[in-house]
Write a structure and sequence with these properties.
The structure is a single chain. The protein is of the alpha/beta class. It has 8 helices and 8 strands; from the N terminus they run βββαααααβββαββαα. 42% of the residues lie in helices and 18% in strands. Strands 1, 2, 3, 4, 5, 6, 7 and 8 form an 8-stranded mixed sheet that branches. The chain has one domain: Lambda Exonuclease, Chain A (Alpha-Beta Complex), CATH 3.90.320. 38% of the residues are buried.
Length: 280
């Protein structure tokens, strides 16, 4: 069975004749400046500028240590990474892939998770095996780190760490669920990855695919100026905030539901009231 694939942002050009404007914004140079960009940084800032300040600028620690979702995600990602990077199974053999992935997941005992997560993780391994065997990717890199620059308008050093790089694009493994804000996050992450791919290989990827292992769904973002500008709009605001020192708090329900800095936040119901964040 082939997993369903969605695409929220359709391709606008023939991949063989790319003339996208965004390509001129990408450089292989990594300028020396304090502000750094990455998909995680931009997504955090887009969610709440103040949470970005807490996470990347202040010396405050998260209120809670890394929880089960992070440990579970690391366990799943590292299991898949090891099997592919170490050529433990032919990529067209679902049965061997499944066996090796299950064994790799089982071995990652440094990431302790509840028993129900062990069962979910095993299902994720089976989904990954089926996807890989159906797709049979031509692998260029596993957990590949690329340093490059994005002009907004001056070059800003940017880092991308990509789960699986192939001859025609990228694959990103997801252990979370698809939610109403997922498309927003995919556009930001997809744009950063397409810039990294362009900087590394001299051409854009055909697509960035997000494989949701628990939900057995594949969603994709194709290169377009619309997607690129969506990401760089937030990146530009991030750079401006770092230059001005202004990081206002968001008040959306998404931010409040997951933010590890809620106890410090003047905008949160359980936070520090009207105390300015600079005084924490």
């Amino acid at each position: 069975m082939v997993m369903p694939e969605d695409s929220d942002v359709p391709a606008t050009l023939d991949p063989n004749t790319w003339t996208l404007d965004f390509q001129s914004d990408v450089t292989s140079d990594t300028p020396d400046r304090d502000t750094k960009l990455s998909a995680s940084r931009i997504k955090t800032f887009a969610r709440c500028p103040l949470s970005y300040w807490f996470k990347y600028i202040s010396d405050h620690e998260d209120v809670e240590p890394p929880g089960v979702p992070l440990r579970f995600g690391s366990r799943v990602h590292e299991a898949i990474e090891d099997v592919i990077a170490e050529d433990r199974a032919p990529l067209d053999r679902q049965d061997i892939l499944e066996s090796e992935l299950l064994a790799a997941f089982e071995s990652k005992t440094q990431y302790s998770v509840p028993d129900e997560k062990l069962s979910t993780g095993a299902d994720c391994m089976r989904t990954a095996a089926r996807f890989i065997a159906n797709d049979q990717p031509s692998v260029r890199g596993v957990e590949q780190r690329v340093e490059f620059g994005i002009d907004i308008p001056d070059p800003v050093p940017t880092t991308a760490i990509m789960d699986l790089v192939t001859d025609d694009g990228l694959i990103d493994w997801k252990t979370g669920s698809i939610r109403d804000y997922t498309s927003h996050q995919e556009k930001i992450q997809g744009a950063v990855y397409m810039g990294a791919y362009l900087a590394e290989y001299g051409e854009p990827p055909e697509s960035v695919r997000f494989v949701y292992l628990k939900e057995e769904r594949v969603r994709s973002v194709e290169p377009s100026d619309e997607v690129w500008e969506y990401m760089t709009d937030y990146a530009r605001r991030l750079v401006e905030a770092e230059e001005s020192g202004q990081f206002p708090a968001s008040t959306g329900s998404y931010c409040r539901s997951v933010c590890p800095y809620e106890v410090y936040c003047p905008a949160a119901d359980a936070g520090a009231g009207t105390v300015p964040y600079e005084q924490y």
